[in-house]
User: Fold RidA family protein from Mesorhizobium hawassense.
Amino acid sequence: MRKLISTGSPFEKTAGYSRAVVQGDWCFVSGTTGYDYAAMTMPETVEAQTRNCLATIAKALADGGFDMADVVRAHYYITDQAFVDVVFPILGETFGDIRPAATMIVCQLNKPEMKIEIEVTALRRTA
Assistant:
């Protein structure tokens, strides 16, 4: 059974995507930037953006019946190599004990205010 998860962001409708898609025991969370979707603002710092990304991802996973501990794969996209040492500790707060397979790439993102984008895949744990 397929379930589509939305944050209500206007970007999802405009670009034609879901925040996450649940297919069976899998949850695929789209690349998530640091927007505060309640205020539709982007914080200036990469630290605040990273925390917003993780909060949006956690909510999408929860809406699909998953939690952060189910994450098995993470892709991190940052716009400046200098951000690596800044975001690693923040990512470690969330994923330190989970330790998903992960990749970090330095690249350009869709809008100049975006400093980080995070995409994860989760697999429902069985008892």
About this structure: Strands lie at 2-5, 20-23, 26-33, 71-78, 101-106, 116-123. Residues 2-123 form a domain with the 60s Ribosomal Protein L30; Chain: A; fold (CATH 3.30.1330.40).
